[in-house]
Design goal:
The chain has a single domain (about 70-245), classed as Jelly Rolls (Sandwich), CATH 2.60.120. It is about 5% helix and about 35% strand. It has helices spanning about 5-15, 15-20, and strands at about 40, 60, 70-75, 90, 95, 100-105, 115-120, 135-140, 145, 170-175, 180-190, 190-195, 195-200, 200-210, 210-220, 230, 240-245. A hairpin with a 2-residue loop joins β12 (about 190-195) and β13 (about 195-200). It is globular. The chain starts with a helix and ends with a strand.
Length: about 250
Amino acid sequence: MKHLLPSLLLLLSTSPLLADEAKPDPKPPAPAPEAAYPEPAVVEPQFEGQPVPAPKGALILFDGNDVSGWKQLPDKAETDKSDRFRWKVENGFMEVVPRTGMISTREPALTSGHLHLEWATPAEVKGNGQGRGNSGVFIEGFPELQVLDSYNNKTYPDGQAAAFYKRQPPLVNASRGPGLWQSYDILIQRAKVDNGRVTQPAIITVKHNNVLVQDRMEFPSSVQTGTLKFQDHLNPVRFRNIWFLPSP
């Protein structure tokens, strides 16, 4: 028996059944973000590039000339740390001046309501993927809404135009070509908050060139009134005709 015991223990320790039982549960593989979503289908945009007039009661955030309601958030490399506005303003639009930093509304004007803005990527195509006509719309309380030249320009679905960056791709690709004016119509419904606790999440819907691309996306933010920011991503993207109509 003395000779059999070590052999029996060796047999049990190498048994496939016991060896499997002794292993911890394997961790599920992390999803590959770029492979997590199918590429959105290309559809015909329903916006022809003419400025959309602001409705009665809308707050004009940018009229094509006056930027007194905006401030600069200087790039880290900037020696001048003041909030002096540095982007180009001409011909009814504002244009990113690379390496100056983001811009922001001075006041948190966005409650619940309808935000409209128009944007255009450079007519001269340079780069590809994320390096082509890149900027972003930041509505405080929500993730970045991507601005990108996504016309015949492949990139990961949750990084293309009208995606909530790295959160949710657009339902479809409704992009117009480089240099052409495009529109975002964004319906914001702020969260319901009770004693500091979110009882109903914030909801946001987006139309790109009058095509539904984000349908009632929910986010847990408790922000009730927020700023609007545009990103400096080193590309001279243009913005114009920015207005906000608060919900009644």
